[in-house]
Amino acid sequence: MTTTSQLSPPSDLRPARPFRGGQPALVGGLLAGAVGTVLLVVGLFFDAKQVFFSYLVAYAYLFTLVLGAGAFIMSMHAASAIWSTAIRRLAEAVLAILPLVVVLVIPLFLGADLLYPWMHPERIAREEVRQVVLHKRSYLNLPFVIVRAVAYFAFFLLVARLLRRWSLRMDRPGTPEELLRIKSRMRVLSSMALPALAVFGTMASWDWLMSLSPDWYSTMFGLYYLAGGFVAALAVISLLAVLARRAGYLPEINDSHFYALGRLMFAFLVFWAYTSYWQYTLSWIANRPVEAQWFWKRTHGAYAKVGLFIIFGHFAFPFLVLLSYWIKRRAWGISTMALWIAGAHYFDVHWIIAAARDRPNPFSWMDAAAVLAVGGFSLAFGLWRQRGVSVAPVYDPTFARALEYESL
After folding, report:
1. What is the residue extent of each domain of the chain?
2. Taking the alpha carbons of 45, 49, 50, 51 in that order, is the dihedral positive or negative?
3. CA distances from 94 to 23, 358, 382, 391 (A)
4. Residues 6+ positions from 32 with CB-CB distance below 8 Å
5. For 245-284, what is each residue's pLDDT tens digit?
């Protein structure tokens, strides 16, 4: 725990440098978002259902990244981890996209008729499935789904706003006692909010993803989905750390910081694989038709190839590479694996969602359009919110010690 004696003003550090860069990326993100939106609108005239499925994939991917960044920030505060102070603002930059995530959920509700079978149980051909859906109508109905989404996001926004405001308060000098109070507030809030974040994130995954197959359920689904997002969020934070050092915003971070991020990526990659394996294994052992059907769709035909990529590309390959101590301590090594893992997570989310449509071909050009729309606007919004904010919280009482972090 940080004490008053440890809170000395970091007078030997450089002044806070507000972020002013990223203009080309911001403009590029806006253009990509506009192009993607136009393509999705055009797609509505060809296959409206596919447009909303493609959009759901892109949105579900973004949701896990932002929530994963929030989980990283809160877990570091709760653990009073000092080393993470050096790169905390990078995670906060990802979490700052949250207001846009709230807005972007609206198209899911507009396209609910095309996405979710529980919207029209009378259209379900199989009697046993129709009865299951009717039994769940008190929970799976659009008004209640919207109310729950409002509750989730109200909580996420409140916690994110408080953490950001307190963090930015430390961009100017303060007395040791004042800084200690701010750090204590962040630790207490994070410790209390982290379990709720996991619960609400899991419930959101039930509402938006698991209910695509309303006769199927898995108690491990939320954990599997969120764990993959947490690994991807660590990958994005790692990539941002490399870029921030290269651009001179965080020149003091060293190879040990990359190594710490690499170890976390490795550990939670194994955890994600564990949840994925046991979700499948428990269903295989139970051998219930409804559970078997969910996996059957995703392990046969063209979807089987995506599943094999997830096994070997999302787990086996990065697992073997991240075993290397040498690679985890190299900026090029950690950034390469970060890009790979962030990309592999998209295919994992796509594999979960696209198979619910029962199309022979898992992919569509509308997938790329949705990525452009959601990804482009998210990039632009994140850069816009970061402008004028220092990437280095130099007056944070633990920042100087965080830069001295060394791990053998």
Report:
1. 29-403
2. positive
3. 17, 33, 7, 12
4. 372, 373, 375, 376, 379
5. 999 898 889 999 999 999 999 999 999 999 999 988 888 8
